[in-house]
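W.,

You were right to be curious about this one. When I first looked at the sequence I had no strong expectations either way, so I just let the prediction run and decided to look at it fresh. Below is the sequence, 139 residues in total, followed by the output.
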Amino acid sequence: MATPVTPDVLPHMDAVKAALEAAGLTVYLGGVPTASGWTAPDKYAVLYPDPGRAVRDSLADERASLDTTMQITCVGGDVERALWVAGRVRRALAAPLTVAGRICWPPEDLGGPPVQRDDDVSPPVYFVPVQYRICSSPA
C-alpha cells in the first residue's frame, strides 16, 4: 500500500510569496516588521495564509489535495499605490503556482472590500485586502 501524501500549506505559501516577489513587490508575511527604526516602503504587500484543509480525494478517505485561502493585503501611501499593488498581485497570481510534487490550479481571485485608510499608523496608509483560493493535488 502506498504511503498517503499529506498536503502542506507551507510550500504553497512560499510559492505565492515567490510569485509576488518576482512581480517586483516587497512582501511581508503575517504583518510588517515592528523593529525600532523600520520605515515602511511607499507600497508593499502583506501575505496572511490560512492553514488550509486536506480534501478527501476518494471514498477511501485519502486526503491528499489541498484547499486553502491566502489574503494579500495591498498597502500604499495613497489609494493609487494600494490599487497598483493589487494589480501587480492579480497579474502575479494569474498562472498556476509551481509547488514541487503538486499539480496546482490557477489561484482563484476571490476579490475583497474597497480600499480603506488606516489612520492608526503615522503617516496614514491605504490598504485593500484581496483573497485567493489556492488548490493543489499530488502530481
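Here's what jumped out at me. The CA atoms of residues 42 and 112 lie 21 Å apart. And, maybe more interesting for your project: The longest helix spans residues 9-22.

Coffee later to discuss?

I.
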